[in-house]
Design goal:
The protein has 614 residues and is α/β, with parallel strands linked by helices. The protein folds into three domains: 53 residues; 153 residues, Reverse transcriptase/Diguanylate cyclase domain (Alpha-Beta Plaits, 2-Layer Sandwich), CATH 3.30.70.270; 237 residues, Alpha-Beta Barrel (TIM Barrel). It contains 18 helices and 23 strands. The strands form five sheets. Strands 14-15-17-18-19-20-21-22 form an eight-stranded mixed beta barrel, surrounded by four helices. Strand 10 and strand 11 form a beta hairpin. Helix 11 runs parallel beside helix 12.
């Protein structure tokens, strides 16, 4: 039978127990249980330590007991209450009401060797012990620490959550900005920056989509719109005014095109209107007329009153083309036809127009080559004194000796030269040739040379003229330069400076086609011209219209008052000559006195002064 060894007091420095203020005060019972084999021989023992001094510190009084129910052992020290100790069975299982209750097996081979330590019975004075209170305080401190750590964790969680929220908001803001910027880029890619209208690419896409969705009873009209006198505005008033004018034109086009039509700008002063036709082709003509009328109204840009107008070419699906490219090309051909027939008009596409466009393109390339090869010649029309019929000078008029088309008048290529930029080289050649021819004339009469408004964009125009005079040896007083009032339309400082620099050379300046513009009188005040040339449209009606005679007379009197010579253009009959002379014109020019002729034929006028009329 196992026996219980003697109780010995030992020190257990490595025992893990509640700290009581003295690490060395860790004493207890050593319970040694021998283990015997089946033959009765001693095979070994199992030992356990029961702390005592620590229990005494924590549980003063008889508030703990060590029990072995299997052998009927109960510690004789510090017994619990009699009622509890009398019933050993009360200690056979752990009690949840006790502070500590544990079964400690001392022998694995003996089922009766289960020792139980019971401590802190409910009626004990455990709660009043100072160490226990310290433990409780430690526990409370631990709870507080847990609470603080929890709060810190919550704060960290809030901070992390806030940071993540801010990151999400920043990402959403960035995404919105990217979307906005992408939309702006897409808008810029599909719209004209200056006017905000759809550009050529979006126009083509919209047309393709519209053509696919049209029903059988629907048609689509394409209007190509071109401004008639926009280039002189750019040349004289400057590009900022021209840009603002284009914006005003775009607004006016959208206003008159209506909600169901689309207006696009495809370049320069060219616009396109897409119109859905529900009641036949007449709707296209009605819209075109409305737009032309709207563009003919005056524009007010930065204090300038500007009149331009527009021409329109129309192509209709499916009659004039099946694709967007074909429709736009055919509408452009119709537009070219409208501009060639007088501007401010509308023309619909007709078969055969493509051939005329090809002819124009070929003429453009031939013009550049013609300037390079000097295929041009000058013809001279005489000017005479109105009272004496004496020869006073010649106006140089250029002709193109075209190798394929023959001799072409200025009306057939000058505008093309201005549009393509060939006018600069052509104008310089005309100046040099006219000065060289005039220097050879036997009489010191004047030679008049026309200047295009486009030539005033050159910074060195006055130097170019001075070089022509120097190369020919012609006196500056014998050279007269004719300009139209469109040159002064902008009242541009550079233009005026150029005119004054030309006057300083000793050259005369004449205003050509006087009376056909909008504010000629103000131009006479802005620059002191030497000559006013009254447009042929007034002279041709003098015999039939008293109003025309009154205008000619008023201009002649104005010229006399301002000290300017007045020349009546387009005098073709004796009656016209008599009337311009009677109404005060100082010079005359026209077929009645002589048609334009090559320089080689001018000798007859110098040799036979009496042969002055045709």
């Amino acid at each position: 039978m196992p026996i219980i060894g003697t109780k010995e007091l030992i020190t257990c420095d490595n025992t893990d127990f509640i700290h009581t203020g003295n690490d060395a005060d860790r004493s207890g019972f050593i319970l040694s249980v021998p283990v015997f084999g089946q033959d009765g021989s001693l095979r070994g023992s199992v030992s356990a330590i029961m702390l005592t001094s620590a229990l005494r510190k924590l549980l003063p009084g008889s508030d703990y007991v060590i029990v072995n129910s299997g052998y009927g052992f109960e510690s004789d020290q510090h017994k619990m209450s009699t009622a509890l100790a009398a019933d050993s069975r009360a200690f056979t299982a752990p009690d949840p009401n006790l502070i500590y209750s544990e079964v400690i097996p001392l022998s694995l081979n003996d089922p009766r060797s289960a020792w139980r330590l019971w401590a802190g019975f409910p009626n004990s004075r455990f709660d009043n012990n100072m160490d226990v209170q310290s433990v409780r305080q430690f526990e409370l401190a631990g709870y507080a620490a847990v609470a603080v750590v929890t709060l810190l964790a919550l704060a960290c969680w809030y901070a992390i959550g806030r940071t993540m929220t801010m990151q999400v908001e920043a990402a959403e803001t960035l995404e919105r900005r990217v979307e906005q910027r992408t939309a702006q880029i897409q808008h810029l890619a599909t719209h004209d920056i200056l006017t905000g209208l759809p550009n050529r690419g979006l126009l083509a896409d919209t047309m393709d989509e519209a053509l696919r969705s049209l029903r059988d009873d629907e048609k689509l009209a394409v209007h190509c719109v071109d401004l008639d006198r926009f280039k002189p505005v750019n040349d004289t008033l400057g590009h900022p005014i021209g840009d603002e004018l284009l914006g005003a034109v775009a607004k006016r086009l959208k206003q008159h095109a209506g909600e169901t039509a689309m207006v696009a700008r495809i370049g320069g002063d060219e616009f396109v209107i897409l119109q859905l036709l529900l009641d036949g082709n007449d709707e296209a003509g009605v819209l075109a007329s409305r737009v032309i009328h709207a563009l003919s109204d005056e524009f007010s840009i930065q204090g300038h009153k500007i009149n331009i107008g527009g021409s329109i070419g129309i192509a209709v699906f499916p009659d004039d083309g099946q694709s967007s490219e074909t429709l736009i090309r055919n509408a452009d051909l119709a537009l070219y036809k409208a501009k060639m027939e007088g501007r401010g008009t509308c023309r619909s596409f007709e078969p055969g127009m493509d051939a005329r466009l090809q002819e124009r393109r070929q003429l453009e390339s031939e013009l550049a080559l013609g300037v390079k090869k000097e295929q041009f010649v000058l013809h001279y029309q005489p000017l005479h004194d109105a009272k004496t019929s004496q020869l006073t000078g010649f106006e140089a008029l250029v002709r193109w000796n075209h190798p394929r088309l023959g001799l072409l008048a200025p009306s057939e290529f000058i505008q093309l030269a201005e549009e393509t930029g060939a006018i600069d080289a052509l104008g310089e050649w005309i100046m040099r040739r006219a000065c060289a021819d005039a220097a050879k004339w036997p009489q010191p009469v004047k030679v008049a040379v026309n200047l295009s408004p486009a030539q005033f964009k050159q910074q060195g125009l006055s130097l170019q003229v001075a070089a022509a005079l120097a190369a020919s040896g012609l006196l500056p007083s014998r050279l007269e330069l004719e300009i139209t009032e469109s040159v002064l339309l902008a009242n541009n400082e550079n233009t005026l400076n150029t005119l004054y620099s030309l006057r300083d050379l000793g050259i005369s300046i004449a205003m050509d086609d006087f009376g056909t513009g909008y504010s000629s009188l103000s131009y006479l005040r802005s620059f002191p011209f030497n000559r006013i040339k009254i447009d042929r449209s007034f002279v041709s009606l003098m015999c039939e219209s008293s109003e025309s005679r009154a205008i000619v007379k008023a201009v002649a009197e104005l010229g006399t008052t301002l000290g300017m010579t007045t020349t009546a253009e387009g005098v073709e009959t004796e009656d016209q000559y008599r009337l311009v002379k009677e109404n005060g014109c100082t010079d005359v020019q026209g077929w009645y006195f002589g048609r334009p002729m090559p320089a080689s034929e001018l000798h007859t006028l110098f040799e036979q002064p009496e042969a002055l009329t045709a």
